[in-house]
Known about the structure:
The chain is mainly alpha-helical and about 160 residues long. It has 2 domains: about 1-40; about 45-155, no CATH class. The protein contains 7 helices and 2 strands; from the N terminus they run H-H-H-H-H-E-E-H-H. Helix content is about 50%, strand content about 5%.
Amino acid sequence: MWDIWGEKPHATIAQIAEAIKKCIAAEEVQAVAEPHIEYNYNAVESQILTRVHTVRERDKRIVMLKKEKFQDENNGKLYCEACSFDFASRYPRHGDGFMECHHIKPLSELRPGEETTLDDLALLCSNCHRMVHYRRPWLDMKELNQVLARADERL
Ligand SMILES: [Zn+2]
Ligand SMILES: [Zn+2]
């Protein structure tokens, strides 16, 4: 080694060292840029059904009527039919009148042109509503109540 490199001026060795460092750095960049084959993406088709479901629940008039009927029957209060969460109590003024509305009947069971009645809807807080749709098959109201009851037993 000394025979080859010993007589080279210091500057040349420093240049070579720099070139090697650059090479290593470039290789590292290349390694990071390698395609990640494990990131293959498969679309989950059930998401589309969830979206259709959500859009159906946005029929503003029937949602408004559902809430008004519930308040008429519950001393003007509006709370989650499953866990009793009340947005107006937790978020004073800001949360007044807020509640999500869930379509109880699975879309797959609706006939073309079938109309939605107030009894087909359930008023749920955002947590309960998301939990209903979190796993397939979606929870029905009885199952949601059972889940909540299991949690209450642990308290
Ligand atoms: Zn709730
Ligand atoms: Zn829903």
